[in-house]
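Entry 14. Ran structure prediction on the chain below.
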Amino acid sequence: MSRTRVEVQLAVWSALTFGSLLTSFMCLRPVRDALVLDGDPNRLPWLFTANFAVFIAIAPLWGMAVRRSPRRVVPISFHIFAVVSLVFFALIRQNVAPHVINVVFYIWAAVHNQFVVSVFWSLLADVLGPGAARRLYGPISAGGTVGAVGGPLLTKLLVSHVGVAGVLVIAALFLELAVLGTFQIKRIAKTMPLAEEHEAQPIAQGALNGLRDVVRSPYLMAIAGLVFCTATAATFVYLAQADIVKVALPDRTARTDYFATVDLVQQSATFVVQLLLAAPLLRWLGPGIVMAVLPVVQCAGILGLEASPTLTVLVAVQVTSRTVAFGLLRPARELLFTVVSRDEKYRAKNVLDTLVYRLGDFASSWVYIGLVSVAAGGLALTLTTIPLTLIWLALAIGLGVAFRRRLSLTKEPVP
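Output, structure tokens:
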């Protein structure tokens, strides 16, 4: 069997597995956001705080397990998350301690998203060499995009028939499909040249080392600032959304359908933007200008919600801002890591995508609650959003300049 044929098989199974994982989570997300609004939206900062605390507690243990035996940990972890989904299905369906279960489910869903996806990429890092990874990353990511669209589509189509709790069974089934996919990935990887060498190579990990890399590098610190600003603005919109949806859609099933619809439209729009616009814009304008689009869009969205806090405006803001974030900013930000060392790319990127982003969620949620609780809450939020946008813009443009400078030193053509 030729290497090319093996790589094609591996790409197909990896894409199917990644697609199943994202289908599972994107089925869960509308349910998570709908259930949490059964209670008081003002408790969301406490849930963000709990998410951050749980992440800090679990991440080192999870990282240790993945480093030691990623091929064994992956299917076991997927099984565990599938079983937990079924447990939540039973508890929610029987209406057992709903306020407690809704809170626990919200935190668990955040853990599910963070660690299930990360352990999948750890498996691929373990079985693929750098060259194969570059060749297969595109098709595998495309599988994830299909899953990200399929999850909310399934939820929207089925929630009125199976109920909110029933969606969790669908999520569990897709996790089990992902388990089958991991077995195929491991089987095919054994036939690849240098498979034993890849298996023996340690995965570049370590939160403390990654944090040290970030602190020592002005370039990485600027990326950390960008990530923090992105998380802050997204959290402001998310918390505003909670207040609006709670009032407009008191029914749990209607809220689930609403969140699934927003996710479906946004993921579909993101796919189109990534397919048709991201690469040409990055090539013509560079990452700095492309990343500067989101601060402007988010600022306009937050100010628009302050002026007209309606469901129609909210849908427009969420779809537009998320599409720009995932369709343009994320590819541009990934480009920034092509001019750092391999260790910085793996260690620092993991810290930025997890620790810094969660810190932004946690801190900005309390800032938002503090701002809206004062007498002139709307004015205070506006006066906070504008300087945040200016800082965010400065970081985006500055990183674009720094990227081109670093790229010129490598003697590679500027995108």
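The radius of gyration is 21 Å. Will compare against last week's run tomorrow.
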